[in-house]
Amino acid sequence: MEFNDVTADGALERAVIESAPDGVMLVDQQGLILMANHAMEQIAGRDRSSLLGQSINILMPPHMHQRHDHMLGHFFAQPTRRPMGVAGNLHLPRPDGTQVPVDISLGHCHVAGLPCAVVFVRDLTDIKRLEEQMHYHATHDSLTGLANRWQFMQQLMYAMSQSARSKRGMGLLLLDLDDFKSINDGHGHAAGDQVLVQAARRMRGILRSGDFLARLGGDEFTVLLPEVRHASDIEHLLSRLRDALAEPFRVNSYTVQMGVSIGVACYPTDAEEGETLMRYADMAMYQAKAAGRNTYAVYHPEMGEKLQERIVIHDRLKVALKENALQLHYQPQVDLRSGRVTSVEALLRWNDPVLGNVPPARFIPVAESTGLILALGEWVMETACRQQAAWAQEGLHLQVAINLSARQLRQPDIAERLSRLLEQTGVNPAAIELEITESEAMADPEQAARLLGHLSDLGVRLALDDFGTGHSSLSYLKALPVQRIKIDREFVRNVTVRESDAKLVSAVIALAHTLGLDVVAEGVETVDQLEFLCECDCEAYQGWLLAKAMPAAELSAWLQQGQTGQGQHPPPEDDLCCCQSK
Hints:
This protein folds into 3 domains: 3-123, 2-Layer Sandwich (Beta-Lactamase), CATH 3.30.450; 129-303, 2-Layer Sandwich (Alpha-Beta Plaits), CATH 3.30.70.270; 308-560, EAL domain (TIM Barrel, Alpha-Beta Barrel). β5 and β6 form a beta hairpin. It is α/β, with parallel strands linked by helices.
């Protein structure tokens, strides 16, 4: 069979095939390539003349030839449309020695009465590159380039298992820069960022190659030290770290000086569980601060103040739930196409008569670790639904976004619970949007897809929150029944000052659009950030440029007064969503 015989059906068909962005080939039962389009030439790195009449095996690694011959025979015996391999796991070798990640699907047709396989080949290079960028951002601190909290916790678990097998100890350091807030307040956040970068560089220069340094957030760092059984083993290292961070930092045309408080805990001497070891190092760090700062302290069992604080927070939070003493504030979201506020996000606030104003960063982790997060989540969901119903009666048709914690999402009857609540409150399901974080969804993508499917069947909208901070393969996005994604404030914050973040946000928005998803940008604080998002065709945004989160009555008045996106105050760093730390 000749190439002209294959393409003799007409110019239209040839034009369509030639203009296709994906590679297309026609292969006969012997595995010979009968036709290949221009995109296939580009993907394979070969001209058409070197493809036609050749075995399809030239496009596969040698170790797959025999297996592929068997699979080809099986395909022609049962010719059904099917994917080949697992998405992203196939690589096409080129003559120059490089390999291209590809996605391959097979179709079936007859040409001149003979059965043929239609091979569709998609080049995944750009998608894989974007996945790698997103994975880096999800596992590294964008400012210092150090490992972030998530990667550190993974490394901690691994290091503890290694230490247990080798019978060698491990040291954990928790470092908090002293008086860092005064630098931010006195010189601005840009100056504070420069200090953090320099501090990270100094610590890197002192630590050994096998030590693991991470930034937990803010001005807090942590270090894993292998083969350490007692703090006395690392006294020299602790002194070097303290002295290095006590040296002045050069910021623009001036210098600033501070110190560092270091807490030390050892595995398995002090604790045999990661969370406990972290808590003990944290207790020791606060002891160092109490001792006058710019020093280090080693954990000992009497350091129970931090634990006592958690107990008090837990007990007072139970009382607040019982007495309905919590409050929801709502942050508006603007549709950039219409300029109207169409949605609000529910954010939890707690002002306790004993503890005072308790930020979510203090009580949400306690609720999560004690299981109280389930009762807290139920309260948030019911309160938000009732408020939406009240607004609807007032003629304010706002969609309310409610955050689901990981514990809530894992409840097998979550859909039934929500269904009953929607019926009791009379809320239109389409007026409720449930948000789960990317990390929660990717912890078990198949289970998440199933549970989210049950929720979607109720008619509520679903959103993937904090997108870019998790560890998703982009191929999984299609399997999740979400309608939109929310780009994390950390990436939005830097789009006008860091080219890598700008490219990432732009690429994520474009990808979301190809998947039919809307995009909401979180934490928009400046006009420049907003203009960038508009250029990227982002659908909506929220942040302090528009408005802070406010009580329901205040929001109603704000909307009726026709307020527009005018900033109010710098956002608090611990402004967390109702049932999650972010």
